[in-house]
Amino acid sequence: MNPRWALYGAVVWALGIAGLDSAAVQAADLAARQPRLEPLKNVFGTYNAAPRRADGRVDLDFLAKDLSAIRANTYNWLIWHAATDWDDLKAFLPLADERKIQVWVTLVPPSESPPRAKNFSEPFRLDYERWAVEIAGLSVRRPNLVAWSIDDFVHNPKELNPERMRRLLSDARAINPKLAFIPCGYYRQLTPAYAEQYRGLFDGILFPYRNESVKADLVDARAVKSEVAKIRQLFGGATPIYVDVYASAHSRLGDSTPPYVGDVMAQAHECADGVLVYCHPSQSGNPEKYRVIEELFRRWADAQPGFLAK
């Protein structure tokens, strides 16, 4: 086991035995995670839908320039669409670094893999132990790779159980203790029982907002702040929450409108630790949503001291 995790476990155990309150335990947890949390402040960027060339490879130069054009400081790279996505990620990282853009990488879970879906995350597929080690190694070579995630993580509790995650995260953090793990979790699945099971394993939560505390839709943005507050309470106030904003259509809930996207983004920016727009917008495909996203990102970038993306 990673000595850092062993020490952290011993500290938490000792605090519990000493009968100290939960605030002390949370303080120990925060201290252990602090190196991973430092690069994850004031996040705003996009997720998935990288532009592609005719041969199916990601158009790396176009993506890097477009992220700079909208003033994003983060891009969440989904490995799922092509067998070459992992190789393209490696080539994209230095381009993103030149523009001061941080990168997350997301894998698909068993529930979004064959036989239930067309593609695996290639090349390591469902071998998350191998993925953890490979991503950690890449993040050492390319420090602007700051986080990794598993999509729809909460829908796969059997395959991605706490024991397995604790082992593979220990292996990843032994290679790079600064690499954060920020899985995707939905409001209805993030219950007190779930939070108790996975407590201490997540460095943050990527939270796709869908108004699920009222009625699931991509229309009503009024519950953004209350849902973020509820999740933050469940996992401890020090656990960062990153709101995933649907700018693309959902298979069941339909499409969102430009005003809705702007409203959710604005509210999330006020109450959460970051905003990721799903998916990366197309200026030609939906110019109105593109303008909304660009306007807010530019406003946030101008207000952020030392913002360097260009």
Number of helices: 10
Structural class: alpha/beta
Q: How many discrete domains?
A: 1
Q: In oligomeric terms, what are we looking at?
A: single chain
What CATH first level would be assigned?
A: Alpha Beta
Provide the succession of SSEs.
Answer: HHEHEHEHEHEHEHEHEH
* CATH fourth-tier homologous superfamily: Glycosidases
What order do the strands of the largest sheet run in, or round the barrel if closed? 5-4-3-2-1-8-7-6
* Strand-residue proportion: 5-15%
Protein model, in words:
By secondary structure, the protein is α/β, with parallel strands linked by helices. The protein is 43% helix and 13% strand. The chain has an eight-stranded parallel beta sheet. Helix 8 (224-235) runs parallel beside helix 9. The chain is globular and about 45 Å long.
What's the layout of helices and strands?
Blueprint: H1 3-17, H2 22-37, E1 43-47, H3 60-69, E2 74-79, H4 85-98, E3 102-107, H5 128-141, E4 145-150, H6 162-175, E5 180-181, H7 192-198, E6 205-208, H8 224-235, E7 241-246, H9 258-271, E8 274-278, H10 287-303
Parallel strand pairs: 1-2, 1-8, 2-3, 3-4, 4-5, 6-7, 7-8
Summarize the structure in short.
With 310 residues, the protein is α/β, with parallel strands linked by helices. The chain has ten helices and eight strands.
